[in-house]
Amino acid sequence: MGPEDEEDLSQDTDRWWSLPRGQPGFSPLMEPRTSVAQHTALPWKHCMQLTLLLVQMSLPEVAASCRILRCNSDFVAATLDLGSSDGGGGAAGGAALSREAVNAGYCSALRSYATCTKRMARACRGDLAYHSAVQGIEDLLIQHRCPRAGPTAQPRPLPQGTLSRDACLYERSFFSQEGRIPEYLHCSVFGDPHVRTFNDDFQTCAVQGAWPLIDNEYLYVQATSSPSRVGANSTAITKITIIFKNMRQCVDQQLYQAELDNVPAAFADGSVSSGERRGQHSLTVWTQSPGRHAEIRATHLGTLLVVRQSGRSLSLSVRSPRSITEAFGPEQDLQLCVWGCPPSQRLNTLRPPLPDSSPSATISAHAHCIALLPVQDVYYQACVFDLITSGDLNSSTAAVSALQDARNMISDQESIHLQLVVSAQQRRARSDLMLLLLLGMLGTLTSA
Q1: Counting beta carbons within 10 angstroms of the beta carbon of residue 386, is it exposed (0 to 12), middle (13 to 18) or buried (19 or more)?
Q2: What is the DSSP track for 92-111?
Q3: Which of 181, 380, 398, 447 lies in the 20 to 30 Å Cα band around 158?
Q4: Residue range of the domain that includes 198
């Protein structure tokens, strides 16, 4: 590519940024053509890049995809109406005011665009479209003399005429669009605490303080755990906070909070339902044991949450569609229900930290739990763990209740009982397969 070609490319880039929004040819993505021919002379580099890509795909922290397209579409939506607002007739003063309002709206949209790209920085590292968008935003902020700080664009509300009759009934809306029922996932957090993730991994965590269980576009759930008693090795969930995020056509933001010895059958504002539309409520709460149990149904999300107190700890069980649980960005990278607890906070469920008790206490714990949970699965192991670490017989009810919730929420009965040893073998098998694949790639490189 010669200097003349580079000059043409620069001119094309300038024209791209100057295209009016909403006209054919505009795209918030600019893919530089200079990157196409850089590696054609060194084919072995492509193999190395593919190998590195496979390594990255095997790492959970890199698994989140670059969602720059979402930032682009939000920016386009925020600026759709600005073009029609500019250039209106009227007196000179009115026209000047209109141009100022348009520029202010455009700057707000650019600041929102910039904020969105910053959130994507981790997942989009090395993505050409992402870096092109970042540079373009910077140029436009300077061109329009936009202050770095200021209001951001609000999401465009959906026109009422476009709302389906079933828009706030997730299951019915999903079936009408997809022709099938949604795929549901299950998560539970209970006991010391133990976590069964949406991916059916099972972990025991040493976490203390407040930790997010779910953090997506629709729902935020947080659990707070504290030592069960002074000097004890065990912890217990003492508070659960659930925030249903604003979904304008269905429900306003709603808060639910439960604490030890206070599991209310109502939201924080005292209501038992919210989001009424056509005689139906998007959110409802009811209880079968006042003060110790609450069941929250979010029909607009197709989601069921059960909060209960078992012994001296709280527990949470969730049933939610896959599309809801996966509606999050790379910045929402700490969710115990999605990835489990951090590796540094994990305990061996099969080897609980022993308090100053005799071996007979361990034998008694096994005998007590096998009477309640005949199948020696993860719930049985959690029961034994909690009894040994807490010394409280009532702590066994947490595992029993969690198993009952799993039976109610998981349609595939064969998936209810998990085995810790089998899960570990499957993880090793996946790691071995990836290692063999990488070794094969490297062998191809050395023989080339």
Answers
A1: buried
A2: HHHHHHHHHHHHHHHHHHHH
A3: 181
A4: 184-347
Measured over the CA atoms of residue 298, residue 303, residue 309 and residue 312, the dihedral's sign is negative
- The closest of 326, 303, 387 to 353, measured between CA atoms, is 387
Phi/psi region, residue 190 (left: phi>0; alpha: psi -120 to 50; beta: rest), is beta
pLDDT tens-place string over residues 410-447: 999 889 998 875 444 444 444 444 444 454 555 544 45
Q: Which residue has the tokens 């008693």?
A: 229
CATH number at residue 319: 3.40.1000.10
Are residue 250 and residue 294 in the same domain, yes or no? yes
Q: What does DSSP assign to residue 263?
A: B
Instruction: Specify the length of the chain in residues.
Output: 448
Give the CA distances from residue 331 to residues 69, 73, 151, 239, in Å, rounded to whole numbers and listed in that order. 16, 18, 21, 24
Section 396-401 average pLDDT = 94
Q: What is the pTM of this model?
A: 0.60
Query: Tens digit of pLDDT for each residue in 209-225?
Result: 999 999 999 999 999 99
State the Rg of the chain over Cα.
Answer: 27
